[in-house]
Amino acid sequence: MTPEAVADAVNPDGLIELVQEAVRIPSVTPHEGDFAHWVHEQLQDGVWERAQLSPCADYRPNVYASAGQTSPSLVLAGHLDTVHADDWKAHWAGTDRADPYAAPIIDRAIWGRGAADQKAGICAILEAFRAIGRTGCQPKGRATALFVCDEESGQPGSGVSAGMKTAIADGVIPQDHPPDFLIYTEPSTSAIYTAQMGFLIAQITLTGQSAYFGRPELGVDALWAGHRLLSALWTHSDDLRAQPQHPLIGPAFLLVTEVNSGGNIAVPGQFHLSLIRKVLPDERLDAAADAIRDIAAQVASDHEVEASVEFSASRDHPVGGTPDEIPTDHAAVQALGESISAVTGEAPRIEAAPFWSEKSFLASLGVPGVYFAPGDISNCHTPFEHVEIDELIAATRTLAHFVASWCGLEPAPTT
């Protein structure tokens, strides 16, 4: 059986219905349970040899599945949760898109919260393996499906990659013999994202001494110190941008995202800001964090205030998420590119993710990987989230072609 025959076995109508059904199950972090159970049910289709739910937190299970036994091996991963849909309901009130979970088809695209991020990718995995089953085959190389909760940020008490950390603790990825390749189905417009930025999020607080406005000499102006802190941080960002850029990711920089100070008729006694720092693959998160601490400490010393720096977005590192990169000439990247060309007739696009996601967790275990899936991240987390149906079908056929090519095929047992 050829990879082309497997790609042709993808059922477009069934795939569309599968994505619509998935979107219709709300799974806003931390309420992924219903969708996790649905995914687990979908894996009981006779193609996967084993499928299980694994507890992560209260009604927030991960879903694991596997098929095949030999090498080369493959992990297909995605996250089960979505961001909230509050802005969606306000934007589309009174229209045919008012319900973020109705999954209407408009202008040959499926609309809804999670359509692209990340339910299209998960359904592409499900349908790609069903296409293999329709040919009477099964993967020869070991394929592991890894669907986790708690990837998305924004909801209180969540978004710390609890699901991926649980999966690693569960031993789904054998650390003594890690899989040969990973595809994480974050939306990539069907490009191959071989690199991703790292990040850290910091909150800096400067504390001076408040004083009545008529006696400013009795106070220590934290807002004035904050002005100097902002200048120092922006200078640091300019210095980062002046350094050599990554060929796919671009320059490193930091962005101040929030500032707060004052409010009374008095010398401001406290200044607070938040920032996010983009980190390149050749940089170290620890060094990036230390540079921010040093800037805050210098400003505090110069202006007789106290400074505290906290890093609030620990993922696979105490201060944030680590960057990751795989060589563009890696054998699996080349094979995936060949599958894209075989299915679409077009040359593959090798790009970098304009986001951080959980691929780096598995890279730290020795699993090289990429992001690949239909959908455009630029409309995700917005009221305009959708996935183009033609891209969805082509990406799913590409995935089916690649699994057949990379893992190889053997006849499925008959009963």
Summarize the structure.
The chain has 415 residues and is an alpha+beta fold. It contains eleven helices and 20 strands.
Characterise this structure:
Helices cover 34% and strands 24% of the residues. The chain is of the alpha+beta class. It folds into 2 domains: 3-196 and 323-411, 3-Layer(aba) Sandwich (Aminopeptidase), CATH 3.40.630; 198-311, Alpha-Beta Plaits (2-Layer Sandwich). Strands 1-2-6-3-7-18 form a 6-stranded mixed β-sheet, sandwiched between helices. Strands 9, 11, 13, 14 and 15 form a 5-stranded antiparallel β-sheet that branches. A 3-stranded mixed β-sheet has the order 16-8-17. The relative contact order is 0.20.
Defining key terms:
five-stranded antiparallel β-sheet, 2 domains, 415 residues, six-stranded mixed β-sheet, alpha+beta, Alpha-Beta Plaits, Aminopeptidase, elongated
The assigned structural class equals: alpha+beta
Cα-to-Cα separation, first versus last residue? 20 Å
What percentage of residues falls in helices of 4 or more residues? 25-40%
Number of helices: 11
- What is the number of domains? 2
CA radius of gyration is: 24 Å
**Mean of pLDDT:** 96
Supply the CATH architecture of the largest domain.
Answer: 3-Layer(aba) Sandwich
* Lateral strand order in the biggest sheet: 1-2-6-3-7-18
Largest sheet: 6 strands, mixed
Shape: elongated
CATH uppermost class of the largest domain: Alpha Beta
User: CATH homologous superfamily name of the largest domain?
Assistant: Zn peptidases
Number of strands: 20
Strand content: 15-25%
